């Protein structure tokens, strides 16, 4: 007997879609996004942080692969419907604890005030709103599938720079969306949205994001991010973000 799913995947892999017309001439560039209000942003972060699937990762100096920043313990997706202030505070506390552990291993213990700035701004930057803003600005469907957030940090002995890279699948037309479950839906187009430096950014109300869109054939956004690892590690080493393709 044949495998219907296999046939679908074979057809899907065989058809190469051109980049959306609105982006074909400029698959890389910048756009002015807008972060949500602080209270809304904190709830968005808690919802992402406590999701069943890991969505937040860390990459630092001399790391060969990204590491998850979500704890195995603590509240789970069962708490998402009750995002009261206590749950949101717990998300921030656990995120800070997990981020500190990774920073200590990659760079060394950061100064407390520097850690506080990074935690607050990273939480604000990790929002699906930025992906939706990108899609609508570029005349795509208002959807951002399988979002994944990567905190990328540079430095020796101290944090010199930190960026939030947001990845997701976007679509120009409904026919570009494959998959029958929300968590597995994907498209042939992956976008990377790179935030300003989280340490030196003075105003989170004006949020200019660097975007890079490419045609890709992967089942998960994490697989797409893995193909970016070589370039990301190089950027962490050199500080040249324009080397990212």
Question: Could you describe the 3D structure shown?
Answer:
With 245 residues, the chain is of the alpha+beta class. Helices cover 36% and strands 19% of the residues. It contains eight helices and seven strands. Strands 1-7-6-5-4-2-3 form a seven-stranded mixed sheet, with helices on both faces. Strand 2 (56-59) and strand 3 form a beta hairpin. The termini are far apart. The model is unreliable at 4-14 (pLDDT under 50).
How is this fold's topology laid out?
Layout: H1 4-14, H2 21-24, E1 28-33, H3 38-49, E2 56-59, E3 67-68, H4 85-106, H5 112-125, H6 128-137, E4 145-154, E5 161-170, E6 189-194, E7 207-215, H7 221-226, H8 229-238
Parallel strand pairs: 2-4
Antiparallel strand pairs: 1-7, 2-3, 4-5, 5-6, 6-7
Number of strands: 7
N- to C-terminal separation?
Answer: 42 Å
Could you describe the largest sheet, including whether it forms a barrel?
7 strands, mixed
Topology order in helix (H) and strand (E) letters:
HHEHEEHHHEEEEHH
Shape category: globular
Short description:
With 245 residues, the chain is α+β, with helices and mostly antiparallel strands. 36% of the residues lie in helices and 19% in strands. The chain has one domain (21-238).
List keywords for this structure.
alpha+beta, single chain, globular, 8 helices, seven-stranded mixed beta sheet, 19% strand, 245 residues
């Amino acid at each position: 007997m044949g495998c219907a799913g296999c046939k679908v995947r074979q057809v899907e892999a065989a058809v190469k879609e051109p980049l959306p017309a609105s982006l074909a001439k400029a698959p890389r560039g910048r756009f002015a996004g807008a972060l949500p209000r602080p209270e809304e942003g904190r709830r968005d972060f808690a919802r992402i942080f406590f999701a069943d699937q890991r969505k937040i990762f860390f990459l630092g100096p001399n790391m060969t692969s990204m590491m998850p920043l979500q704890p195995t313990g603590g509240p789970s997706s069962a708490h998402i419907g009750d995002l009261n202030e206590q749950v949101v505070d717990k998300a921030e506390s656990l995120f800070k604890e997990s981020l500190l552990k990774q920073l200590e291993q990659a760079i060394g213990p950061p100064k407390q005030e520097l850690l506080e700035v990074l935690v607050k701004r990273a939480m604000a930057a990790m929002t699906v709103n930025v992906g939706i803003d990108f899609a609508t600005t570029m005349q795509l469907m208002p959807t951002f599938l399988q979002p994944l957030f990567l905190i990328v940090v540079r430095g020796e002995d101290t944090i010199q720079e930190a960026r939030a890279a947001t990845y997701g699948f976007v679509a120009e037309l409904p026919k570009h969306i494959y998959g029958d479950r929300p968590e597995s839906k994907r498209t042939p187009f992956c976008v990377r949205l790179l935030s300003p430096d989280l340490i030196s950014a003075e105003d989170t109300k004006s949020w200019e994001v660097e975007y890079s869109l490419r045609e890709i054939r992967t089942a998960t956004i994490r697989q797409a991010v893995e193909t970016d690892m070589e370039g990301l590690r190089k950027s962490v080493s050199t500080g040249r973000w324009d080397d990212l393709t």
